[in-house]
Amino acid sequence: MINEDISNRTVSIQFRASKKIADELLRAMKTLMAKSKKAGGLEEYIKQEGNETKLKDMVKKGQLEEIEVKEPELKELRKELNKHGVKFSVLRDKETGNYNVFFQAKDTKVMDVAFSRALQKAEQKYDKKQSVKKQISQLKEKIKETITNDKVKNKHKEQSL
Q1: Which positions are tagged coiled coil (predicted)?
Q2: Distance CA 68, CA 102 (A)
């Protein structure tokens, strides 16, 4: 009897808690949708809330610094810059295909740290990919060697008396 009462109470408490959590999630989603409608879509809202700013706004505020970055390094650099709170803007150079990252001159020290970490992570990923490719090529060579050594088995039947 006591165990049934306790289990009924815990089930009812869990049900009420899940109901409250669902209500809070619904309220948060509604506010997010309202803010994204004001901004002109969810992507625009995320761009506004992120640290990536427009180049025109950065020019008004002061001296800009520029770094040329290739595409594989760009993802890591964005993560690091957002992590360190650096305001930046990214433009693609159509002629070379590289990206130019602009940031405020006052953020140079933080930018150096973020850039060095991003380069390290990009190099680690590149090295990891290279090592996997080397392993695959080595395994292919081993397979080729084993295929050439085909064994021929001949069974001889023995005569019984």
Answers
A1: 119-149
A2: 9
CA nearest to 99, candidates 75, 129, 63, 64:
75
pLDDT in tens, 125-152: 777 766 777 788 888 888 877 765 455 5
CB-CB contact of 68 with 99 (8 Å): yes
pTM of the predicted structure, to 2 decimals = 0.39
In the chain, the amino acid numbered 20 is K
106 in Cβ contact with 99 (< 8 Å): no
Which of 36, 46, 42, 56 shows the shortest CA–CA distance to 78?
Answer: 46
62 and 134 share one domain: yes
CA distance 20 to 34: 21
Q: Is residue 161 part of a domain?
A: no
Whether 156 is in a domain gets the answer no
